[in-house]
Amino acid sequence: MSIGDNGIIVTSGTVGLTARKKAEQLKDKTIGFIDGQQFVDYLFQSLDTMSQDALNTFGLTTNIGFM
Questions:
Q1: Distances (CA, A) of 57 to 34, 50, 60
Q2: Could you give the angle at the alpha carbon of 18 between the alpha carbons of 17 and 20, nearest 5°?
Q3: In Å, what is the CA distance from 24 to each residue of 11, 21, 32, 36?
Q4: CA distance linking residue 42 with residue 27, whole number of Å
Q5: Which ranges constitute the DSSP H helices of the chain?
Q6: CA distances from 38 to 13, 21, 30, 42, 43 (A)
Q7: Per-residue pLDDT of the chain (67 residues; tens, 9 = 90+)
C-alpha cells in the first residue's frame, strides 16, 4: 500500500485484537477489517441488488428449489 491508501482485509474467521492494534498504528494508511460473519451479513443484505454473475461468484442463486 502506498501512503494515503485505504485497504480492507476480509477473513472467513475473526480478526484478532493484535491485528487491529497493528493496523491502528500505521501512519498515513487506513486498514479496515471485515470478519467472516460480518461478510456473510453484508452479502445477504445485498442479494437483491447483485447481478447473476456476482451471485454465481459466491455460489448463490435467487431461485428456490425443492428436493
A1: 18, 11, 8
A2: 65
A3: 18, 5, 9, 20
A4: 28
A5: 17-25, 36-45, 52-57
A6: 10, 19, 19, 6, 9
A7: 778 788 899 999 999 999 999 988 988 888 899 999 999 999 889 888 999 899 888 888 777 666 5
